Amino acid sequence: MPEDLPAGYYLRNFTYLLNFVIERHEETLTVAEKSFFTEFQALSLDAQRLYVRLCSRKGPLFRADKLTYEDISDTAMAVAELVDEGFADRGADCDNEAILALCTRADLLCLCRQNETKSASSLKKDQLLAVVAEAMVGLPLRAQLPFTVIQPRRLDELRVFRLLFFGNLHQDMTDFVLHELGVAPFESYEIDHEARFFTDRTLLDETLALYELSELSREIIDSGERETLLQLCASLPDRNPDLGHRYDRIVNRIARQLERYDCCVEAFELYQRSSSTPARERSARLLRKMELRETSIEICQEVLRAPWDEAEYEFAVKFSRRILGKDHRFQSTLPSVESRVQTDELVLYPEKDCNVESLVCGWAEEQRFSAYYVENSLFPGLFGLAFWDIIFAPVRGAFFNPFQRGPSDLFQPTFVDARAESIAERYAFIQDRENLASTVMKHYRSKHGLANRFVHWEALSEDLLDLAMFCIPVQHLTFVFERMMSDFRNNLSGFPDLILFRDDTYQLVEVKGPGDRLQVNQQRWFRYFGEKNIPAIVTNVSYPPG
DNA sequence: ACCTTTCACACAAAA
DNA sequence: CCTGCCACTG
DNA sequence: TTTTGTGTGAAACAGTGGCAG
Ligand SMILES: [Mn+2]
Ligand SMILES: [Mn+2]
Fold this sequence. Notes:
Serine Threonine Protein Phosphatase 5, Tetratricopeptide repeat
């Protein structure tokens, strides 16, 4: 059970983060960011606490009357101090709409009565909101409200601190809490205190800009405004190769939406700016749709010459074959990517609250198998446990804050190079089944629960690991590990649903219900299993009529 | 990498 | 009155 | 008919309280 956190834990965490960043990055911070730090330190305890509370909530606008915290003795005073010191404002420049959104339905009805606005009390809140907003245009809303509002400021400065600390903006203070509670604790690896996620300010600013672009483009896509999206395309920044992948993902997403709008040319131009999958696949499909068959084929040729990953390569092979026609001269030059996947058919009675995978799992148990629904947990998990210490080894620059689930270069091809020697050594060591078992079980016990990108603890039991290491030949495991390592980004998924054990044998089973089929990543693993004689089968389940 | 990713499933379109 | 959503909390 | 393409939704801490419906 999680233990209680010490009083004021959230402020302590916040201060820890600020100090951590100041110690390492002071020279890259702007004047505004540095004064954010010093002025925050100068606030009273209550004000600091309130600020941290506010900026860890969604907001961005809050009702002052609903802010009650046990450890903040005088909230009104703290609010006033934050406002005075520039860490908050009273929502002066907020429009009526934003403020009305803070009202409950009851508040809105009350406002209607005060202004003698006609409205049915049966209206839904959204409709009521619209009615009141309409009636309040040009009227002084503040005076009529039963509350005042507050809005934290300097959030941009705080964003910079967060980005410098985590190296991303999706992690936040909850990582501290979950770690301390023992819900998702992190490994205590050695942090490289010289490491800087951002080498220069330009890169930092460009990263922030890309985050903003990502958010903006998402909003525009969600809003369904085609014209606005087209305008955004015209004002995109240039691609900085150092942030290439980040840039490409945004561009790919916008282009995909343009495809849906049938803005083929604009979509194609956007894909041209991207150097990440699936830009070229989408381009090829798009060009064929535009009846530019030759250009489409050219793109496929490019992919075949220098594929960005296996999926893209296989797409190009199959797509070329299809659009080239049966007896085109290039046909014969295309390699085969097909494979005969072993399948069997199974008729089972559906059960409520039981997905088809669990159904087959239960069926296998009846057939005297030990069956586990593992999907992507087993092989990556075994890898994570067998290589745990290497994954968390203090490679230069790999660990720069205490909340990482793996080294920062994990998805770079450099991961293997930087650890080549210890990886080779570990491979040699675990060729002996006893050594493999002892390494895996040692880490299973000593690291249990610690966050590791490869290890999903909830799906790994000691029984499962024992059986897996007893029944799966080390040679097979090594083959699987090697393919995983050749491309972590793409090859950590697509594993079959189930693994069955009986005596000293095993069988991987991908369950397919009616209407389901192998996905491309699953196909690639099945092809590999076939090449390496790893026992894997697709089980097609159907249900009896009625 | 919840700013995701992964998987299954529904339906439409193409072959 | 109950239920589901969602934001918040530790 | 079968195969292929595309879009959708759920699940990834757990427990609680406020609020809308
Ligand atoms: Mn599955
Ligand atoms: Mn399946």
